[in-house]
Amino acid sequence: MPTLAELGDLHGKRVLVRADFNVPLDGDTITDDGRIRAALPTIIRLIEAGAVVVLTAHLGRPKGKVDPHYSLAPVARRLGELLGQDVTLAGDVVGPEARAAVDAAVPGQVVLLENIRFDARETSKDDAERGALADDLAKLADVFVSDGFGVVHRKQASVYDVATRLPHAMGGLVQREVAALERATQDPARPYVVVLGGSKVSDKLGVIENLLTKADTLLIGGGMVFTFLAAQGHQVGKSLLESDQIETVKGYLATAAERGVQILLPTDILVGPEFSADAAPTVVAADAIPADQIGLDIGPESSAAFAEVIRGARTVVWNGPMGVFEFPAFAGGTEAVAQGMIDATGAGAFSIVGGGDSAAAVRLLGFDEAGFAHISTGGGASLEFLEGRTLPGIDVLTD
Predict the structure, then answer these.
(1) Whole-angstrom Cα distance, residue 65 to residue 60?
(2) How does strand 25-26 pair with strand 29-30?
(3) Active site (annotated) includes residue 250
(4) Active-site residue, from 356, 378, 379, 393
(5) pTM for this structure?
(6) Which of 79, 155, 229, 246 measures 20 to 30 Å from 25, CA to CA?
(7) Does the active-site annotation cover 35?
(8) CA distance linking residue 238 with residue 105, whole number of Å
(9) Per the residue annotation, which of 60, 64, 80, 380 is the catalytic one?
C-alpha cells in the first residue's frame, strides 16, 4: 500500500485526511483524547510539508442528521491546543461553508469538516449515494490520506469510496496499526498469548475461531467468561450469560483440546450483589458463584495467574477488560493484565492493546502508554483484523 512518502511534494496541495476522532465526551469536555493524539504525527507531517490539511471524521451516531450534541467543535478546540495553532471548523460537511473554509486556507493550515455522519450518504448501503458524497469530498482535495484505523473496517464514503477518486495513501497511524497487527498474526514470536475480555462472547466469535489456529494460550475474562463457565456446567448466578452461545463455546473448548491450545479460565471471581460501584466485593470460586451474586471481575488468584502467563509470553495481544474497571473495587483483574503486559514488554515481548475499552482502561487506570509496544486506536477494526477478515478501508488502498 502506498505511504505518505510516495505522494511526492505536497506543498500547496489540499490533502483530505480521514481521521478517527470518535472520542468520549462529558458534555463539551473530551474525557479521553487518545485518538486525537494518535493522529498528530500524520497531521504535523502534512503541516510541515506545506499542505492544506482537510480533516474529516465522525463523532457518535447522529444517524445522518445534524445534531449539535455530536458537533466536532470540542475536537477542533483540543486539536488546536495540541498543535499550537488554530484549527478551523467548517460549519457543514461538504457544503458552501466547507468549500469556503478550504478555499481560504493557506499551506500549513488545518480545516476540520463538520461531523461526516451528519450526512446520511456516509453510511448508506447504496453505492451511488455513497459515491455522490465521495465526489463532493474529492472536490475539496487533491489527494486522500487514510489515517482513521478505527473505521477501516467500514465501507463508507469517507473511508472507502473517496479513495477510488483521488490519489491516495495510508497515513502513519494506519501504517503503524497494520504493521503491528501483522506482526502479531503472521509468524508471531512464541509463546503467543491472547487475552480476551469484554462483555459478550458473541462479539469475539470470529476472533476465537481464528486464534485457535494461531495462539498458544487464550486467557478469558470479562463478562464473556460466564458463558465459558456455563459451558463447563457451572452456575453463574446473576452474571452476564449468553445462553445461545453455550454450545458454540463447548465446541471451542473441544477444538482447543484437540489442537493443544490452552484456554485458561479464572479459578476465582469477584462478585457483588448488584452492578454498582458501591457493591461490596466478595471473592468466590469460579465454580461456586452464588445465585444472588453477579460476577464483576476475575478474582485475585486468577489475576496473579493471568499476569504470570502474560509475563512468559513473547507475543501478547489483549482485547477487552477483565471486569468492570470503571468501578475501582472491580478493576484489579484489568490492572493485573495491563501490568503483566508492561512487564512482558520490558523483557522483550511484543505487546498489543487492542483498542476500545482496553485502551480506555490503560489510560483511566493511569498506566504509562509507553510501556506497551502498541496501543491500537480501533477496537472493532483490530478485532476484524484478528479474525482474518478483509478490511475495506485497507483493501481499497492496495494498488
Answers:
(1) 12
(2) antiparallel
(3) no
(4) 356
(5) 0.88
(6) 155
(7) yes
(8) 57
(9) 380
